[in-house]
Amino acid sequence: MKKSGSRSEATAMALIEAALQIVRESGVKSVTHRKVCSYAGVALGSSTYHYENLDNLILDAFAHYVEDVSSRYEDNFAGATSDDDLIDAVLQLTEALTTDMGNAILEWELLAAAGRETAYRALAQKWSERARSAVQAYVSPQTAHMLEVIWDGATVQRVLNGKRLTDAELRRMVRAVLELDDSRSYPKVKSDGGRSSKGKAAARTRRAAASR
């Protein structure tokens, strides 16, 4: 991607967001220079100025998506101080992934591309590694991997079949996996009951979402 100042960078970001929106609506094959520029509200030549070809634009768009969603995963798991907090975080993550169909589509489009091309596979692996790393602050790598399998599988099942897998059943599954890990540990809560403000906010958000 070519870069030359803040205005140019803003245009490039608009192109990236436009490409992602097109993928959400109608898939990767629908992304064209003309359509991207139309969605972004920029001159027709803007996409070819910033990107030599559509492949580079789409790859950059997915890289932006992976960075954004990875940061949200990390925030979601931050501040856990108990099994209950971590279970809440897994349920909140699953709920977020299944209620935002646009992002679910982006994930599946990325995984489909990852099956064909190494550049996309590297992006998908980066996302997976960052998600597991966020959980490994509390549990072993093996447990983090099993939890990832649970939230990935639960997401697919809920998108396809609704909540046949109930929150209570999902909680039992996650708790069973956690209880297999004798090495799991959490930051100690201070005597004033204080977690960091970020941790408190994250826990409140998780519990509020879980109670809905």
TrEMBL record:
Region entry Disordered, spans: 185-212
Annotated Gene3D superfamilies: Tetracycline Repressor, domain 2
Entries under InterPro entries matching the protein: Homeodomain-like_sf, HTH_TetR, TetR_C_31
Source taxon at top rank: Bacteria
Keywords attached to this entry: DNA-binding
Segments of skewed composition (Basic and acidic residues): 185-195
Domain HTH tetR-type: 9-69
Pfam short name (any one): TetR_C_31
Residue ranges with Basic residues bias: 197-212
DNA-binding region coordinates: 32-51
Name of the molecule in the record: TetR family transcriptional regulator
Species: Mycolicibacterium conceptionense
